[in-house]
Model the fold of this input.
Amino acid sequence: MVNIAILGFGTVGSGVYEVVTKNNEVITRKAGMEINVKYVLDLREFPEHEVNKVLTHNIDDILNDDSVQVVVEVMGGVDVPYQFVKGALEKGKHVVTSNKALVAAKGPELLHIAKQKNVNFLFEASVGGGIPILRSMNRSLTADVILEVMGILNGTTNYILTEMTENDLAFDDVLKTAQELGYAEKDPTADVEGYDACRKIAILSSLAYGKTANFEEILTEGITKITKTDICYAKKCKSVIKLVGVSKNSPEGISAFVAPMLLPKNHPLSNVNGSFNAIFVKGNMVGDLMFYGRGAGSLPTASAVVSDVIAAARHKHLHVDVDWTAEKMEILSNDHMEVKALVRIAGGEAEQKKALALFKNGEIITINEAKDEFAVITGIETEKTLSEKIEQLSKDMEVRNRIRMEASE
Ligand code: HSE
Done:
């Protein structure tokens, strides 16, 4: 038998308890032993729930109990979980977490402690919820040089963009409904500003290339500026707008960003809708791979957490190496990143001429829903020249928005 302690009985923590209880038989078979929830740590009481019997408010009960072999951290935040996780690893306990903020900020340090103590620090659920992407990167895609990772990594924003596209709704209205239905957090900043996806692409990049990607260096734009008019242009271009996290490994170096992008309808990520996530990976030998599934939610995320608990139980006395060192990853300046963009500009023929004089390979498109403006689809530009040209245009006309597109002709 392996005793576990769950830190946090919120959405994911209660899901972990449910998965362990409901799937007890199959989990016991696959782990080769029974998984027993010995403690649940939370500040609250749960008088109506059987978990109350194993509830503690004191982390030391868990850290000082040598019979607890696996600690599951599903609290959220960074500082307190960091102390608890570090404490557990130092006591020789395996740790499983779904906390992407913790992994992105402290991953290499915690992996190092785990290695020293001959235990495992596992975090499958921190990216892509129930999608088994990290184990695939770390254990299966070991024969390849990873050339590219591109993903829809945030369920909340994908739900919002899907609703805006399918039901012709404005960002604020969908966000409000999503909050009422409990899909979006009361404070949605981390999701809608792209911070959540940024941490996830940082973790994926670190695992793909073996060094530590500093998420603070990754260009990050959210979806708060996407309007109904942008969606109309996307439809006119037979494309959809998706918030994507991208990291590319080219001969020049590694580039990474998170931003809304126009993807053509035949792009593998364009049909990933609602709260689903998908991650596209390109290896130099295996070619293109796609991973698709529920990137958020109690049970899908808990499924990934419990699969890590089972892995820890199977390797109770063995540290399994993760190819992620503390060495800093050099991320190329975005100035040199090649992009195309759809640039929306107020005005008519005179402004179109000026815009085309600057974007020489540009193409003008117009939509019936906004007759006082047009858009230029630029040729391939670097981020730097794109910004410079937009700045120049802004001097004598109103540039309303710009949305990146894939830079392939
Ligand atoms: N807020 C995240 C999302 C949850 O919407 O995808 C999973 O990390």
Observations:
- The mean pLDDT is 96.
- Residues 119 and 317 are 7 Å apart (CA to CA).
